[in-house]
Structure formats: structure tokens, C-alpha cells
Amino acid sequence: MAVYLLLIVPLLFPYLAVGSILGCMYTDVGIAFVEHWLDGNIFVLLFFILIAWVCALLLSVIGTAVAYRRRPALEIARMNFILKCLHIPAYVFIFFVAAFTFVHVPFFFGLVALIGFLIDAMTIIPSGVIGLGALVKARKERAFSAPAAVFLSIAQFLFCADLVCAAAVFFRLRKKNRRSLREP
User: Fold this and answer.
1) What does DSSP assign to residue 38?
2) What is the maximal distance between C-alpha atoms in the chain?
3) Could you report the per-residue pLDDT of 96-131, keeping only the tens digit for each?
4) Which DSSP symbol is given to 71?
């Protein structure tokens, strides 16, 4: 259970990042916060988001290391699959924020698209670390060949392919686990 608690920050990171940026851009309280506390510099907010990302990455690494020592590959793959599925609404939300900004303020679209891409990349890296840990453990358990494990490890860090890869790893390990339970 403690491993799952370590993954709360990586889970909530994209929602925290986008919510804080939108809150500072589009609400009176947020605008006052940026003007008064950050001296009108939104890059300070981006620095705080970077600190939150470093925390999310460290907790992902720690959670993966703890899970790697105590859990089978199937459970790590399940954590990765759940985390990636729960990030889907964040990706959709980031897309709609970028589209909304393009329609209403087209000259900020490049900056918003860049920030959206960076938040997406910052979201995929901690979850990719967990997927990488699951694949290393699965390879150690001889569930995947070396070329398949390398390919799937790289795919853990690619947009859209990460969810497909997480699902493939989880369902393959679950199938292997069920098969091993039936055999005497």
C-alpha cells in the first residue's frame, strides 16, 4: 500500500501543473498572486512546477525501487497501467486548453503549445520510469525476450504508445501469471 501512496504525486502532477497555470492566467486571485507575490513573472510559477516535477520523478523512482524489491512484475505493471490510464484526462485537458487559447488569443498559442508539450513530456517521464521498472522485473522473470523488453522500454516514453505498451505488458504478464497458476 505504501508504494501506491508514493505514486500520488506523479498521478496528480499534470493536473497540478495545468491547474496552477490556468489559475494564474484566468482568475483574479491568480492574476493578483502573480502580480503581487511573483512580481509579475510567470516563469517563477514555471520554476515551482519544475520543482513539483522533480518531486514526482523522485517519488516515481523511489516507488519503483521499492516495488521492484518487494513486488512481482505483474503488480508493477498494474501500477503503471493504472497511472497511465488516469493521465488520459490530463492529456485531453491540456489539448483543450491549447485549443481554447488558440481560438481566443492566437498570438500566445506558440507559448501555450510549448508549455503544454513540456507538461506532457514531464508527465510521461515519471510514468515511463515505472514502466521501465516493470519491464526490467518482467525480463528478470523471463516474461519477455531481450529485444521485446528493449522495444517496450523505449515505447514507455512515447506519446500514445506508452498506454498501448503499458496495456500490452500488463495483460501479457497477467496471462503468463494465470498460466503458471494452472500448471502443476
Assistant:
1) S
2) 69
3) 877 777 777 777 777 777 877 888 888 888 889 999
4) S
